[in-house]
């Protein structure tokens, strides 16, 4: 089934990357035009092209894989690829976490006159009181002032339990795969996907609550900015991860993956653990402390 | 052992498909390397044309050719295009061509993604350049796009610029992932890490820097976009944010970025100097460790770009000491190159000339960097032409010269033809003299207090500006000669031998010239 050792699979010329480039260009160019009043059609078209590209490209890879063209060395290239991709995602999140830490440790206290910033405080906004979570802004003109923040031990805590359990169920599915127990694999994946989408649903509910009852919005000053940016990008990544795991669920039901050969499953579960860990950071630094 | 393919037709025995589709759909590292290099050269000429506009406007005091807003667009796009369009893609192109051949691999680890990394670039470049033709003009806030110039006061086209940066970042990250996977997974048997050519080593570390730095830039422009359109206040003090936060996030990317553009250059020089000294590289392992140290330090020095924003003194001191520390591993490198040449049988072929110019001029740029790294001194030099002189010495006489050196070193291997060495020497002397006429006077201008990024200046700066402009036009013109030499070599010329040079080291010299479409389908044994 598997290719000979020493045979590194070199793919034939492929049109998918170019389709992907056109898709990215149309999506982002369309998004920028939409921000300036154009119709969102171009952006939608671009997203459509990207989805088409993903079906085509991933489909090709799965096809090649099922036909045994990949040997161990190719598998290892994919693994390194996924590891470094996740590493780049970690750094993407760290930009936003960095912004949060900087604002909480420096920017907001300084606006309140901390360290040697007495004049900053007295000249700019002498009435400003530096507290976190920051609800009363230095100058709230043009901002939506929030009346409160999310209760840590309500929904966010429930979501923490959900996401941590989903990390456990995906590992349980992996054990099933390694033992050759297909039911455990499928069942574990199904539970993980269900928990993942439940999490996303609860996050959406939380956003509605924040927007309508607390008036906590992206435009509520720096607290709202960091809160929605961090949890929003995390939610997006959970959604992507859940879609990846859904694909794995369908593939496992079709009989793909063996105990030795299941890179795609592992990549999706690594990604899942990554969004899990990011959530722990969010729970501690955004909701709790 | 042969290379497996999806079809029964043997992939490794036929050449490339004909026509445009070869370049659009290629998965071959040599084709993709060529695409990168030509893209980079095109961008060099476009960015260079913008520099010519800048130097023409600054030829004499007063406003003559362009209006100030357009001048600002030129400085902004010149910087962005040279950094993201010319220098970085050139190094990735060299990596594509050389790394698989240097480590004895049949191709890059992820060939289809390799194609995508490249083919994002022309789209990103189009998006970026299209801003010039939009209402309100292109980005005009400098290549560092500080908030609030780029948020509250940015022109409409800023959003297109933001997405162009996103695309450039994706391309770089995918390219870097591919390079790491190739180096870690595709080395021929016996090619241990500490046997790898230094160009491969420096690229391994550069790729790590790219994967760590580019996502942070993506975060910065994403926050910019949100501040512009979604009402957030990351960089707005009225909402509790801070415009200085932008500078921190930007330079956390920006400083590693500086080393992304110079570490591969160190690798190139470390390949060329031993060949023309006919000696082994002095201090190979110390070169590796020095590169890694520079990479580590690059993440803890970012605020030396921000000495005048009003940081706490403890911060200024920390960033100053960390910055000055970089001169230690950099000094190790320069020492090693000089020690390699010491008592060597030196000859001065074209690549060696460029490498020597690199060592001299990069070191000069390093020294002015040392001056800028000292906080109290920087308070004087900040945002003057001294800074412009500094980073053009390291990026033009440094990074760009190393790229040209690399092209002259490996071009016979790529094309199978030796170039016209007399013309190439004219190109060298023309460039090296004009580049100094162009940038050296900028040191004096900066020390005398001329600010950067202005279209007009006080009368006492006139002579040095005129001199710099003359050097600039001459330097610009000399690169057209380079283009001519390249085209002439590709189309024909004296046949190059497989070794090309007298005694070059490395696997790439063991294959034929020009290098066959597929090399090392069977991995070589490295002793």
What is the assembly state of the chains in this entry?
Answer: heterodimer
Radius of gyration of chain A: 23 Å
Low-confidence stretches of chain A: none
Supply the number of structural domains of chain A.
2
Envelope shape of chain A: globular
What is the β-strand count of chain B?
Answer: 0
Q: In this structure, how is the largest beta sheet of chain B organized?
A: none
Q: Which structural class matches the secondary elements of chain B? A: mainly alpha
Question: How many DSSP H or I helices of chain B?
Answer: 16
Question: Quick one: which chains have the greatest interface?
Answer: A-B, 78 and 83 residues
Query: Please, what is the average pLDDT of chain A?
Result: 95
Shape of chain B: globular
CATH architecture verdict of the largest domain in chain B = Up-down Bundle
Tally the structural domains of chain B. Answer: 2
Percentage beta strand of chain A: under 5%
**Overall pLDDT level of chain B:** 95
How big a fraction of the residues of chain B is strand?
under 5%
CATH level-4 homologous superfamily of the largest domain in chain A: Cytochrome c oxidase, subunit III, four-helix bundle
Helical region count of chain A?
Answer: 8
